[in-house]
């Protein structure tokens, strides 16, 4: 029995593949034709082939449950999300614009604080920020760039408008899964790559390496680049080792590095000490140096911040970057673009209520059932309230949390995330998705063509995080 697109229900929102009149969207036309020629049995067979490949390739992620670390196979759906090239050009420009402004904001906060002095950003939000690190004041990372790697989460509302939901600047993850998703999709649907122009993503490791090299304090030499990981028990360890391998860089832990009397960083090796020029850090900044931040940290390197401030080593992302990775600060990004760049934002924020504002707080408390309420510094979908799907008891508990710490919460209207057909048993059913493109900024900028599409595998769910039952898809930008 062949797949019947007439039986596919895209729902009342925006479906990325099927328009409201039942026709295929332009970027997805070849994909719709190919799937329509398949039987439900063949569709399921290809899904199983992808799942087997994931197990054989060892693509996994770690879930923390009841004090244990559980490795699970990466959840993947074979039906890709297709985006048109002309739309992506605008999105790409908006993402690069946004990261430029965010980096200027971070640099400003650790230097002159002009945006505060001119009344465009509240001083108390900076002073109460958990991620504003005073030991970073006056530091000058290469090219004035603090956030070298950013993963911005995009959502599309029911009217087709793309919004930026949040910016992930501290240790953004997921790019290895974007790359592996493409490899598996080529294995499952080789014919589709032969018949159309799908922009490649395979050059990301090279782009990342070139960006990191551009930060080196010894640009005339062959820089030594390392990836600093917390270790094998970290949930993103697969990605750390994957990127190190693809870049040809050493994967190190804190104990593998030391800071010499010359304030340079060295890597211990069998042949002796090797000077390190660039550290791609996958460790939260406050664990990087026990001399400056967390005194009990065993993950970092004593003296590392001293070496970084002396300009003898580059760290990406730079310590202190998290000051802009705050859902309260997110509210001000459009104004940052106007203030620092003198431009209008290409991409818009989701409308956001700042609970530290008394009027906004009163509105949020009265409308908890209608809103998504998020803590300022959590990630992974944890600690949030999805009002329409919450119980009365959950809303009462959340009300108390917000009233106790209004600075720590923001609220947003529920966005009806766009959908993509997804293999559920042997059928295609609409499931909600978001998108995380990755943006690099060093001497130059680079934006991945597409990114990591995350999908809520449960019917009607808006939670796409893999740790909470979500999955992923390949993302095509079709020329």
TrEMBL record:
Circularly permuted ATP-grasp type domain mapped to chain residues? 80-456
**Which Gene3D superfamilies does the protein's record reference?**
3.30.1490.270, 3.40.50.11290
Name of a matching Pfam family: CP_ATPgrasp_2
- Protein name, entry field: Circularly permuted type 2 ATP-grasp protein
